[in-house]
């Protein structure tokens, strides 16, 4: 840690008190904005957002040069399923969280079937079991009125179900309905491997845009609504998986590397401790936290990527016990450590959001490719 950074230590939750302009409550709007931001829908833009002309659109993506016989093959359902129906069975379940993540996951793993217009809506038990426990105003009850959307695909002859969740740990209130949803999805899909994936903030100066972290562990770091919960600092070990195809995935990154900022090196995959990334873990916070050069949120040393939900899957896997599927957390750095020199923490948050808006889709391509590699190998 450089000399100008201020470690927050054990008392950092107290320093992030509501109303201070720098704590979890003041970050809630940024979390909602990132979840709902849609580069093709200007009504989701904030006052700080770049003009539409400056946001590179998904059609600029270069096709992925898949190895022969291993390209994703979408597998639409006939007849189209009723939204109230359970999810179909698949050997692999891949779940993502934001509009931009889902758009990219669909472009890579269900090509030709966009997440917003072609994926099937999923409402099973929504009104009866979920609406009563979701906070009023949360995205699923205020806007989408469903649990998520999904589409089947096949990778190297293996059945895969891609899902975009409308439930979010940071948005849905203290009853943690996303935990119930994980149990329901696993019960219905009966996968042998579950992957939670999407964008994240890089922790530490070594992580660059487009880098991917495959969590060794996923840990809660709750400082807001779940700070007094029994699991608020719990950590969960991810499954040990075969990774032979990760080198191929890194080669496939290069097809779209031109859409990321110029860098001294191409995006990399981090899954073990290396110089600069000594803790290759994923950190789950219950508000929009990000790493910046004063270490305001105390993230450094906890992991390599910070996001808002993956540890809930770890908790569910632990609760299921011996019959649980294997699981992985795959997160890409959609914003790097923020240089906050001369900025307030809210100004630094705005800077992080701007980077996400411009590059969230493009940094998600590498993590979607890592999901592909894990499915090929396991």
Describe, in plain words, how this protein is organized in 3D.
The chain has a single domain, classed as 3-Layer(aba) Sandwich (Rossmann fold), CATH 3.40.50. The longest helix has 33 residues. By secondary structure, it is of the alpha/beta class. It has 9 helices and 13 strands. Helix 2 crosses helix 9. The chain is globular, with a radius of gyration of 19 Å. 49% of the residues are buried. The N terminus is likely disordered. 28% of the residues lie in helices and 17% in strands. Strands 1, 2, 3, 4, 5, 6, 7, 8, 9, 10, 11, 12 and 13 form a 13-stranded mixed sheet that branches.
* Relevant CATH superfamily: Nucleoside phosphorylase domain
Bin the strand percentage: 15-25%
Helix amount: 25-40%
What is the tally of helical segments? 9
- Span of the ends, CA to CA: 37 Å
Stretches with pLDDT under 50, minimum 5 residues? 1-25
Structural class: alpha/beta
**The CATH topology, please?**
Rossmann fold
CATH architecture: 3-Layer(aba) Sandwich
The count of domains is: 1
Which CATH class is shown? Answer: Alpha Beta
Provide the succession of SSEs: HHEEHEHHEEHEEEEHEEEHEH
Can you give keywords for this protein?
13 strands, 28% helix, 378 residues, alpha/beta
Quick structural overview:
The chain is an alpha/beta fold and 378 residues long. The protein is built from 9 helices and 13 strands.
């Amino acid at each position: 840690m450089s000399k100008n950074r201020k470690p927050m230590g054990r008392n950092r939750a107290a320093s992030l008190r509501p109303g201070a302009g720098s704590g979890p409550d003041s970050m809630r709007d940024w979390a909602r904005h990132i979840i709902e931001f849609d580069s093709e829908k200007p009504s989701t833009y904030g006052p700080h957002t770049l003009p539409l002309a400056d946001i590179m659109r998904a059609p600029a993506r270069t096709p992925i040069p898949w190895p022969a016989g291993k390209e994703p093959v979408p597998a639409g359902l006939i007849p189209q399923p009723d939204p109230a129906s359970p999810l179909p069975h698949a050997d692999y379940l891949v779940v993502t969280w934001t509009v931009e993540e889902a758009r990219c996951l669909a472009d890579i793993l269900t090509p030709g079937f966009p997440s917003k217009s072609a994926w099937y809506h999923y409402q099973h038990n929504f009104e009866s079991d979920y609406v009563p426990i979701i906070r009023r105003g949360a995205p699923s009850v205020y806007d989408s009125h469903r649990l998520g959307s999904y589409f089947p695909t096949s990778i190297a002859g293996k059945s895969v179900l891609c899902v975009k969740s409308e439930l979010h740990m940071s948005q849905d209130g203290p009853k943690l309905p996303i935990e119930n949803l994980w149990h329901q999805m696993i019960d219905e899909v009966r996968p042998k491997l579950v992957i939670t994936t999407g964008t994240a903030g890089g922790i530490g100066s070594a992580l660059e845009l487009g880098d991917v972290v495959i969590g060794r562990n996923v840990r809660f770091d709750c400082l807001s609504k779940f700070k007094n919960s029994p699991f608020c600092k719990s950590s969960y070990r991810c499954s040990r998986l075969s990774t032979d195809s990760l080198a191929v995935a890194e080669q496939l990154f290069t097809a779209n590397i031109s859409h990321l900022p110029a860098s001294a090196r191409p995006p990399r995959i981090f899954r073990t401790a290396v110089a600069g990334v000594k803790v290759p873990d994923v950190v789950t916070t219950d508000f929009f936290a990000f790493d910046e050069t004063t270490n305001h949120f105390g993230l450094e040393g906890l992991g390599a990527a910070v996001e808002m939900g993956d540890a809930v899957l770890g908790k569910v896997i632990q609760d299921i016990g011996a019959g649980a599927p294997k699981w992985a957390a795959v997160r890409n750095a959609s914003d790097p450590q923020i240089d906050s020199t001369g900025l307030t923490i809210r100004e630094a948050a705005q800077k992080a959001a701007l980077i996400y808006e411009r590059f969230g889709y493009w940094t998600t391509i590498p993590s979607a490719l890592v999901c592909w590699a894990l499915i090929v190998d396991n």
